[in-house]
Each structure stands twice: as structure tokens, then as C-alpha cells.
Amino acid sequence: MNADTAKKAAIPQVQEPAKISDISSPKWFLNRELTWLQFNRRVLAEGQDPRTPLLERVFFLAVVGSNLDEFFMKRIGGLKQQLWAGVRRPSIDGMLPKQQLEACYPVVKDILGQQQELEETLLALLAEEGIRICQFGDLSQKQQQEMNRYFKKELYPLLIPQGIDPAHPFPFISNL
Q: What kind of architecture, by CATH, is found in domain 26-132?
């Protein structure tokens, strides 16, 4: 290698950046709903990874379920309202509300299928560790009595307000 070649090798050639004619073009934007669903696929993948500790996998499964609940309440609900209102203005990525709904449903269906498979897998793994979800009727008499006591003392007062006024507003009840 001579001195001239060494100089050329040390200095990288700068290339002209690609010409972007219109940065507001929809082709430069991702759909908000579809990218949100892709994020949830990644969360689900964490739960599917056998290298992840079991209870963390359960946590990721729960997060996906909660996220999908919110997705339908807020995002799908909003798109349906736009559709019913006759909105014909596309989102920044160029998709109309109907197109977004049509694009979301197959992705959601796939996520739900994977979510169900993961739930079955995790329930089996939890059972191997002595953790199981059971029906009330499967509990012993003593366990049923304790559950009834807990419900009456801790939950029932939250569900049935005794009085509603400015000093005692209706208690917050999560939609989930």
C-alpha cells in the first residue's frame, strides 16, 4: 500500500444523500394503530420466550391483554366513531378509518391466537410449580368461607357505595 492509497483508504467517501421530494408524503409515515399492534407483538414475544422467568412471562401475557383491551376501547372505538361519522380524511399515513380497521383485525386475530396458546402453555407450567387457577367450587369449605369473608369485607363496600355526595364521591372502579 503506497502513501496515496493509504490516504484514500483513511478518508471515507461522502455520498450525496438521497433526494426526498416530499417529506409530508404518506409513504414516509407508519400507521399509528398498526405500529401499536407491532409493539404488542414484541411484548407477547417476551412472554413466549422460554428464557424469560415464568412469572415475568405471566406478567407479559397480562400486559398484552390489558393493552388489547385499551386498544379496542380507545383506538378501535375511535376509528369506528370516525367511520360512523363519515370521516373521509386519511390519517397521516394515508389510510382511511375503514382501511385502518380492515388492516387491524387480522393482526389482532393473530395476536389473540398466540395469546391463547401462551396462556395454555403458562397455565401448564404454573401447575407444574404448584400454582393453579381454580373455580370457587373447587375450594375447600374453609377456603370458600375465607373468600366470602374477603369479598364482604374488602370488595363489596367498593362495589356498593352507601352514600354519594361531594364528600363521598362514587369510588373509582377500573374498567379492567
A: Up-down Bundle (1.20)
- What is the SS3 assignment for the chain? CCHHHHHHHHCCCCCCCCCCCCCCCHHHCCCHHHHHHHHHHHHHHHHHCCCCCHHHHHHHHHHHHHHHHHHHHHHHHHHHHHHHCCCCCCCCCCCCHHHHHHHHHHHHHHHHHHHHHHHHHHHHHHHHCCCCCCCHHHCCHHHHHHHHHHHHHHHHHHHCCCCCECCECCCCCCCC
> Tens of pLDDT along 71-120?
999 999 999 999 999 999 999 899 999 999 999 999 999 999 999 999 99
